[in-house]
Amino acid sequence: MPASPPGRPDLSHIVKAYDIRGTVPDQWDRPLAELFGAAFAKVTGADAIVIGYDMRPTSPALAQAFAQGAALYGTAVTDIGLASTDQLYYASGHLNLPGAMFTASHNPAQYNGIKLCRAGAAPIGQDTGLADIRALVEQWAADGPPPSFTSVGTIRRRDVLADYAAHLKSLVDVASIRPLKVVVDAGNGMGGHTVPTVFENLPLDVVPMYFELDGTFPNHEANPLDPKNITDLQARVRAEGADLGLAFDGDADRCFVVDERGEPVSPSAITALVAARELAKHPGATVIHNLITSWSVPEVVRDMGGVPVRTRVGHSFIKEEMARTGAVFGGEHSAHYYFRDFWNADTGMLAALHVLAALGGQQGPLSELVASYDRYPASGEINSTVDDQSARMAAVRAAFESRPGVSIDTLDGLTVTAPTWWFNLRASNTEPLLRLNAEARDEATVAAVRDEVLALLH
To answer: Where is the Alpha-D-phosphohexomutase C-terminal domain (predicted)?
Structure first.
């Protein structure tokens, strides 16, 4: 292994709660990637691992260095090459191997990162191995890396794209739907790699947008959660007279939907729609939703005879609850969708197939189909920059907690609930921001609640 610079580095800026992420090469580089590979092999104790990477210019070299680090530790490496994050989860689940995905998701081009999982796509976060990996890398970077094992592991390539696509299509019957015209905005991300294979031989007229793999994101950021990044898709859906539009983020693990009018469909409505379909197959099953999803989600789950379970925001919490409860499905407001049939991992592509199957299995437009799943007006997520997060949160709590009929909970940030409205206020883990989400029975109430909270913040 290469010599490391003297002094113990502080990796707290790049080792996040659920992944590794930072700018290349100033925050991390190939030598650190190699140490991360060795540390991952040691912490998982695995004889073999699987890795994949996205289309960012720095991804292949970082993945190669990581593989070399794991191999020098004696671990066999299966390299699936270019992949979406959920394609890597498929490989981890199908091959039953720990996995590493090189991506910075929707972050700008100068960023890169690693999403790690144990065999069967089980998540690795701060409390489940990531802190141990960080500590080893910091130690080895300062004191010198461990000696190479006498038996160096092999590194071999394996293409799983066709198997991944076949697995997804085995879970949802899309082949028998009516023909649909769908515009797909891949944002120059990994959707341009996976969509052609997954949608092949389906009754779909696909209009591709930005399918060229380009980690510099020349057209727009690959973050469809920001409304400005789906304006091209909305316009194209209207121009083409398409039945719907789909937008994927950079590593194609999240999917956003717009209807035939070019109007965005709330991820909560997609969560409710998919939940209803899964509960039709698995009566009485549990469905997980985070606390920012709409009231519509638990209502639809109960209407279908299922059991809704509310969790904190974040994939590690969702996946833990899925495993604990045996839930069939889980959804988040950020368009992450988790499936028991997919090792409890998140896959936007499988959610997209459910939407296509639901729409193509009846004659009405998507706007009518989702109307019953999108019952209440909401504010969307509003970010406010504040000097003192704790003080502002306390001020908001003090303003609401003594009001009659109001309940307070602190499962994740501050949630205030009344008979006709609710809001959640959460601190960002990485920025001096407070994030507000509000929902109510009518537009006037949601606007009044939103404005009152924002006035208290500012």
So the answer is: 381-455
User: Strands 99-102 and 76-82: what pairing?
Assistant: unpaired
Cis-peptide into 25, omega within 30 deg: yes
Give the residue-averaged pLDDT of 334-343. Answer: 96
Rounded to the nearest integer, the mean pLDDT of the chain is 95
What CA–CA distances, in Å, run from 229 to 185, 215, 226, 246? 10, 16, 6, 12
Check residue 1 and give its pLDDT.
54
| Residue-range domains of the chain with CATH | 20-159 (3.40.120.10), 163-262 (3.40.120.10), 267-371 (3.40.120.10), 382-457 (3.30.310.50)
Annotated catalytic, 105? yes
Is 357:202 a contact under the CB 8 Å cutoff? no
Question: 124-132, long-range: CB within 8 Å, 24+ apart, which pairs?
Answer: 125/17, 125/18, 125/316, 126/17, 126/18, 128/316, 129/43, 129/44, 130/15, 130/18, 130/19, 130/20, 131/15, 132/39, 132/43
Q: What is the pTM of this model?
A: 0.94
Report which of 365, 429, 326 is spatially closest to residue 309, judged by C-alpha positions.
Answer: 326
* The dihedral formed by the CA atoms of 345, 89, 36 and 427, expressed in degrees to the nearest 10: -30
- Does residue 400 carry a pLDDT above 80? yes
Between 388 and 146, where is the model more confident?
388
Which of 4, 105, 266, 296 is the catalytic position?
105
Enumerate the H helices of 286-438 as residue ranges: 296-303, 315-325, 348-360, 366-371, 389-400
153-175 pLDDT, tens digit per residue, is: 999 999 999 999 999 999 999 99
Helix or strand run (H / E) with residue 409:
strand 407-409
pLDDT band, very low/low/confident/very high, at 149 (cuts 50, 70, 90) = low
Does residue 344 come out as left (phi exceeding 0), alpha (psi in the -120 to 50 range) or beta? left
Burial profile 383-392: b = 16 or more Cβ within 10 angstroms, e = fewer: ebebeebeeb
- Between CA 362 and CA 180 the distance in angstroms is 11
User: Residue 183: which pLDDT band, with cuts at 50, 70 and 90?
Assistant: very high
Radius of gyration of the chain from its Cα atoms, rounded to whole angstroms: 22
Give mean pLDDT, residues 27-42: 96
What is the sign of the dihedral through the CA atoms of 101, 104, 106 and 109? negative
Q: Which amino acid is at 323?
A: A
